[in-house]
Amino acid sequence: MNQYPVSKKTAAGMTTLLAAFVLSLVVLAIAQFLIPKDADYQTMMQGNMMALSLVVSCLGLLTGLLQLVGLILIVTDAGKVGGLHKVLSWAGLALYVLCLVPIILSAVVGMELGTTGSLDAARSTYYLQIAATVLGTLAPILSAFGIANLLQRGLLVLYGLLSTGGGVVSSLMALNNLKIETMTISGITTYVPVPGIDMSSLPYLLANYAAMGGAAIGALAFLLLTIEAWKVMRSREVFTDSVV
Predict the structure, then answer these.
(1) CB-based contact 140:71 (threshold 8 Å)
(2) What is the rounded radius of gyration, in angstroms, for the C-alpha atoms of the chain?
(3) Domain limits of the chain?
(4) 113, 115, 118, 123 alpha-carbon torsion, rounded to 10°
(5) pTM for the predicted model, two decimal places
(6) What CA–CA distances, in Å, run from 74 to 4, 9, 77?
(7) For the stretch 216-231, what's the b/e string if a residue is b when 16 or more beta carbons lie within 10 angstroms of its beta carbon?
(8) Which segments of 31-147 are extended strands (E)?
(9) CA-CA distance, 60 to 141, in Å (whole number)?
(10) Bridge-partner residues for 183, per DSSP?
(11) Angstrom distances, CA of residue 62 to CA of 24, 30, 55, 137
């Protein structure tokens, strides 16, 4: 990265994306280790499980916000670097904005599912989540790929393969024998999708662990990028001070 004229915006953007990766790891760990695999929706809406679900949702929103801020910071500095980094960083931001489309559509379809109990609507939410996963994973990779060294690029590619593969495979497995069940809370009846798979089975756990491993590798890649970016900034400050 030393060869690229990056500024504090890029360093701050890398730091923000690193924070987003750490939070995403926390969310994945909570979902994997603290939420029972056999918990149904009725259980998830009660007591500690409901509080834990709210924490996961809030952390997920914060993670998404940090990613957006980090991508914007990197893009605003990309013009100084130019070339491949400028193109890829803008492409990364565009993909991240684009991934909001399946997320919003999934929420809309989910509301339809809650009132109609449509199995097609339930399947559609999973496919939309898969699309959002792929787009959301590619965005940070593209934002940093143009200024990353060979090791960092390798880590970014590995992160993409594991995170995308794990997320897509677990979603496709959950689609197997998907069924609709009714749930009544405070006198209100709604329909919820129930994955037709044993979530404690080895294949499903391996897919989840792959996604977690990918997130950890992504965090490592952005840790290295963050350290190097701030080193560049520090070396420039020292050089400026020596000149003055």
Answers:
(1) yes
(2) 20
(3) 8-243
(4) 10
(5) 0.88
(6) 13, 6, 5
(7) bbbbbbbbbbbebbbe
(8) none
(9) 19
(10) 190
(11) 9, 15, 11, 16
Name the residue with tokens 């999934």.
106
- Which of these, 167, 24, 15, 145, lies nearest to 83 by C-alpha position? 145
Look at the block and give the residue holding tokens 């420039």: 236
Token pair of 36 as six digits: 């029972």
**Cα gap 26→186, rounded to integer Å:** 31
Amino acid at 94: A
Contact 220, 17 (CB under 8 A): no
Per the structure block, which two tokens stand in for 171?
A: 């979603």
The pLDDT profile of the chain, 244 residues, written as one tens digit per residue, is 545 666 789 999 999 999 999 999 999 998 888 777 665 666 666 667 778 888 888 999 999 999 999 999 999 988 887 789 999 999 999 999 999 999 999 999 988 888 888 999 999 999 999 999 999 999 999 999 999 999 999 999 999 999 999 999 999 998 887 888 888 767 778 888 888 788 888 999 999 999 999 999 999 999 999 999 888 777 765 333 333 3
- For residue 194, CA distances in Å to 32, 48, 197, 207 come to 17, 21, 9, 18
Kindly report the backbone phi and psi dihedral angles of residue 201, in degrees, each rounded to the nearest multiple of 5, phi listed first: -70, 155
Which pair of structure tokens corresponds to residue 85?
Answer: 């980094």
**Alpha carbon of 45 to those of 49, 156, 186: distances in Å?**
7, 37, 11
Compute the distance between CA of residue 3 and CA of residue 1 in angstroms, rounded to an integer.
Answer: 5
